[in-house]
Specification:
The complex is a heterodimer. By secondary structure, chain A is mainly alpha-helical. Chain A is 63% helix and 0% strand. The mean pLDDT of chain A is 95. Chain B folds into 2 domains: 1-84 and 160-197, no CATH class; 85-157, no CATH class. The chains are: A mainly alpha, B mainly alpha.
Chain lengths: 175, 197
């Protein structure tokens, strides 16, 4: 199959993509003094939502109260703005490379339903783990690696090492 | 101008959210255009048919690490003002293992699921929705996890200090390891049966 720029199968050279990503990360430290992230935005949204429904519960919680309640503004957080930018940037890339399409992507060997169940469960598990490790692949691992944080490296090795083993267990979903 | 710009007083703090949106756009564009909106492309790393994750992730890590060392060398960035994630050994390991399981189940991490959702992948959106449930469960059960969450505290420890070497030497090893992995990945990819996706 010939790869054309306009059928949605064109991707940047991975080393160019990585260099762009690394430059954006470097700029993030240079401009804002912090790395990139993703899961933190979910944390703040959850804390803000719970704060609207049950503010007393947030006050009493040793976790929520770190991000919401009192005069804290969890929705006016750097990561929330950054994540909105991520959506816009990915959308623009989708337009440029003609990849905008509403679909469930999965291996032909499994059903959409099975794919969505695994996506939901995987998201749940990932969300939980990202809170425990104080960040996800971007916030803890990649941004941590850039500033040589010991924890960033440990989390990176734990994520990829575990995924190598567990991917084999779930290989029917993929190959 | 000595970075970080936002804490140097050159620009008003009101610029920070604007920086955040622009940086986020660059982040999202880099991920999507490299193919990170496709879970089957991402997961290829673990089966050896597509190493885009290894190539992009480690290229980004070395560009940012080497770049920060240069900025520091030329006195363009004040390292003490950068946010360095504190290290808590137990939660970094256990949290990483849990994330690895979620990663292998769904083929996404939080950032890539957002990119997938942005180009219309429903599985990406569902993953992102699942994260809210996971974060909620974590927050609600925090009193049971609290001890583990704070155990093994090392402060903002750096990996080169743990090895007793300079940041420059560690970064050199990082670059060498990454380049080694790139060649290894190219070699494995040639041996492995192609998967169409």
């Amino acid at each position: 199959m010939k790869k054309s720029k306009y059928d949605g199968s064109f991707y940047l050279n991975p080393y160019l993509g990585g260099a762009i990503l690394g430059t954006v990360l470097l700029l993030s430290f240079y401009l804002s003094g912090r790395g990139l992230g993703a899961s933190g935005a979910v944390k703040n949204t959850v804390a803000a939502t719970v704060n609207i429904i049950a503010p007393q519960h947030v006050e009493q919680s040793a976790y929520y109260s770190q991000f919401a309640g009192g005069d804290k503004k969890p929705m006016s957080n750097w990561l929330i703005y950054e994540v909105l930018g991520v959506l816009a940037g990915a959308f623009i890339s989708g337009i440029v490379f003609n990849r905008l399409k509403l679909k469930v992507e999965h291996s032909p060997k499994i059903t959409s339903r099975r794919r969505l169940l695994f996506a939901l469960a995987g998201g749940l598990v990932f969300g939980f783990g990202a809170q425990l490790a104080r960040g996800c692949t971007s916030g803890a691992a990649l941004s941590g690696m850039a500033v040589l944080s010991l924890g960033g490296y440990i989390t990176m090795v734990a994520i990829f090492g575990t995924a190598f083993v567990v991917a084999w267990i779930f290989r029917k979903n993929w190959i | 101008m000595i970075g970080p710009i936002i804490s140097s007083g050159i620009v008003s703090p009101a610029w920070d959210p604007i920086f955040a949106v622009i940086l986020g756009m660059g982040f999202g564009f880099a991920l999507e255009s490299s193919g990170f909106s496709s879970s089957r492309k991402i997961i290829g790393t673990f089966f050896g048919y597509d190493f885009v994750v290894v190539k992009v992730f480690f290229t980004a890590a070395i560009v940012a690490s080497v770049g920060l060392l240069y900025l520091n060398y030329f006195g363009l960035v004040d390292f003490s003002q950068l946010y360095i994630q504190p290290t808590f050994l137990t939660s970094a390991i256990v949290g990483g293992v849990i994330m690895g399981i979620g990663f292998a189940m769904a083929g996404f991490c939080p950032g890539t699921s957002l990119c997938a959702a942005a180009v219309g992948r429903i599985d990406g959106l569902v993953f992102f929705g699942g994260m809210f449930i996971g974060v909620f469960i974590f927050s609600e059960s925090f009193s049971f996890i609290e001890n583990m969450f704070y155990s093994g505290s090392q402060g903002a420890k750096m990996i080169n200090t743990a090895f007793g070497i300079s940041p420059e030497l560690f970064t050199l090893f990082l670059v060498l390891a990454a380049v080694g992995m790139f060649f290894g990945a190219a070699w494995v990819q040639k041996k492995v049966k192609k998967v169409e996706y």
